[in-house]
Amino acid sequence: MKLLSGIILGAVLALGGTYVYKNYFCPCNNAMAETGDKVVKLGERVPQFALKNQDGDMIDIMALREQGPIVVEWFNKDCPYVKKFYGAGEMQRLQKQEIDRGVTWLRVVSSAPGKQGYLTQEEAKAQHDASNASHTLLDPTGEVGRMFDAKTTPNMYVINHDGVLVYSGAIDSIKGFDQADIPNATNYVVEALYDLREGREVRTPQTTPYGSGVKY
């Protein structure tokens, strides 16, 4: 099975496509990762991982990073800090804006079963349809969340086209859940993506994330 999956992955990447594991290719329930106990650090290549999305397909990071930069957003529908951005329509606006520029935007839900923010696949589909994200990924074991050392929702990450983590931290510069702060804040994710498009180093590669704790 591993050999077959590797052949399929190589063929798809050679054609420049997105590698999507259908359920019948996947020997596991929710996640595949080559991480061990490793926590990915700024400036390092992100290890391969795959998670089920809102449609039940396994989405592989290796294929996505071939297409351009990736934003990874930790999501909890019940978090007041998440509601700040989605309630104002700001996160949806940013998702569409950056996807139109060639970015892949991933939302990851690492809430464990029985914890705040946990989503079944059906619930994830409904939440995804209310966003403009590329995929909403389910990480109920928290394996990928711990790999990124995701601490809050929203905790934001930017991965460049080489698969290297180039930004980690808060979405913007004003902590809190008042929507009135959004226009006055520096959005670090937008800033990092702009720097990548300009071919230069990210000016602010790391900040302290704020929000509610991830419910592992």
Q: What are its keywords?
A:
alpha+beta, disordered N terminus, two-stranded antiparallel ribbon, 216 residues, nine-stranded mixed beta sheet, single chain, Glutaredoxin, 19% strand, 7 helices, globular
* SSE order, one letter for each helix or strand: HEEEEHEHHEHEHEEEHE
**CATH architecture assignment name:** 3-Layer(aba) Sandwich
Helix-and-strand structural type: alpha+beta
Any idea how many domains? 1
DSSP, total strands: 11
Query: How is the main sheet built?
Result: 9 strands, mixed
CATH homologous superfamily grouping: Glutaredoxin
Distance N terminus to C terminus? Answer: 31 Å
Give the % helix. 25-40%
Q: What integer is the average pLDDT?
A: 87
What global shape is seen? Answer: globular
Q: What's the alpha carbon Rg, rounded to whole Å? A: 16 Å
Per the CATH scheme, the topology name is: Glutaredoxin
Question: What share of the residues does DSSP label as strand, in percent?
Answer: 15-25%
Return residue spans where pLDDT drops below 50 for at least 5 consecutive residues: 1-33
Put simply, the count of helices is 7
What's the CATH first level?
Alpha Beta
